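Re: your question from the hallway

Yes, I did run it. Sequences:
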Amino acid sequence: MLINHPAPELQVSAWLNTSQPLSLSALRRKVVALYAFQMLCPGCVSHGIPQAKLIRESFSADEVAVIGLHSVFEHHDVMTQRALEVFMHEYRINFPVAVDMPSSNGPVPLTMEQYQLRGTPSLLLIDRAGKLRFSHFGRAGDMQVGALIGQLLADPVASPDNAACSEEGCAIGR
Amino acid sequence: MLINHPAPELQVSAWLNTSQPLSLSALRRKVVALYAFQMLCPGCVSHGIPQAKLIRESFSADEVAVIGLHSVFEHHDVMTQRALEVFMHEYRINFPVAVDMPSSNGPVPLTMEQYQLRGTPSLLLIDRAGKLRFSHFGRAGDMQVGALIGQLLADPVASPDNAACSEEGCAIGR
Amino acid sequence: MLINHPAPELQVSAWLNTSQPLSLSALRRKVVALYAFQMLCPGCVSHGIPQAKLIRESFSADEVAVIGLHSVFEHHDVMTQRALEVFMHEYRINFPVAVDMPSSNGPVPLTMEQYQLRGTPSLLLIDRAGKLRFSHFGRAGDMQVGALIGQLLADPVASPDNAACSEEGCAIGR
Amino acid sequence: MLINHPAPELQVSAWLNTSQPLSLSALRRKVVALYAFQMLCPGCVSHGIPQAKLIRESFSADEVAVIGLHSVFEHHDVMTQRALEVFMHEYRINFPVAVDMPSSNGPVPLTMEQYQLRGTPSLLLIDRAGKLRFSHFGRAGDMQVGALIGQLLADPVASPDNAACSEEGCAIGR
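Structure:
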């Protein structure tokens, strides 16, 4: 499992709702809530996206980054980037969304594969030092998610030097 | 307004979830709940479609017909028939759905235009004699909708003779 | 069972929210929704009373009478009339409430006993002719309740003479 | 305001759901969620008590203490200890509840007065060192409450020496 290990960098074919591409390494020192979804997944629409919005509203953007990850692993012909754009407009999603890079080997896109996600919606929480601390498929309670983010926020922010070299080794260039 | 007048026949480019096309005239003697929606309309997904399913579960199919009407008036390039099929599969919609016939004159499809709908979701209730009795845009309460259908169900079914010749003409054999 | 038989008259030790006692016989020609509850019953508070209020808001008081029935069958020392008054004030219950008459033979009050209720909340629907048409313990869906009331409303109002003598016989004194 | 100051000890006339009286000083080193409520307060029943239960379920009892505080400031004749016992039984409240000590000077009980609460429900969060960190009247979101508790849990536990010298007296240095 990836838990408590450095979160792999996102593999993205397009970014929406952001003027420039994001990277987990550039978000170091913030807590990152990464929400994998598919636009036609009922649980994502009823629960995942509202919770992602609630995270965005509940915490300062200086402290917590919320990123949607559109990880299409079925019905690729319908859940296109253009369809996603309409979906995000209609559902008023105003945080950055990454389109997970399609794989040439199968239906599961690359970031979803690398994070070993079981499906959508999945919530991933990454700490200020860039480690994956929580990965959950399906519905997670607001209080539990709030508590996890609260605990990650309470971590002292690692100094740049410390961040570069953690117990896992030295993460040069991130 | 169309209320209390004969409900115009549906103008449909394709039918889903039914082995053969339906028509309001053939449904005479049943109450018809016609639910206009768009697959990427948030209010349709959160409220309209669950209410349409609830109508389907609450009444006998011998007494009440539930028909979805996919009335796309925006983002036509994304809300295609193929996308609708995926949507209906993911959201487990198991009642017949008509694709509202596109217009050559503008974005609003023909049935939506003819019924003068203000948007989606819209609920239309048609009585056993084929008259439009209720047309509502937006959220309608379950109890109100139940009461309306209950009252329409209590109408004595028109005799075959009466049903055979309405303002639309004579529907022999129905 | 009492279903489809004349609804027995209420046995009441006190009336609240009404300037004078009500009787089912005087409500003949209206549909009556009788909602049995206890003020400290969680299901009554979370579901029953909100549904009773929704019935009150959804139908004209000229057509549908809503009556609460405080049927205390446990913890009598705590659920007193004075406590009920506070409860009704705090929960803003504005329809008439009857206090079910205590029994000298056991904890179950007389009206609850006569209607053979299984517990609280219980919803009883009485038609315009004074017959019990629905008796349900626990949660009933809003659409189902709406449909039932709608159908009862569609019954032609019986004339006073007809109401006195129905198919069940002559309901003298009611 | 009391925020960030040592939380005053509770003034209690009776304890329920606990074999012996609790005190904030004895709970030092835990986060304490103190939930003030009245049994006939609609917002307490619909929101406050469910949230108190959710806190109890979401965190280890070794880390977070949940205490109900029955702060009756109106209708004292009805919201008696006996009525509270029935209420707690019916609503399956299984965490300790303190009955706030009545005042001889007015309707507001002593703990409620000392904490300057505006009404019920009110949620108070006390950190591991015994300081009041959050006081909120009305509805608070689950994610916000989770985040606050998560952050308080992340505080390093004060050393036994500091904790020992802290029963409202030695607050300096915390």
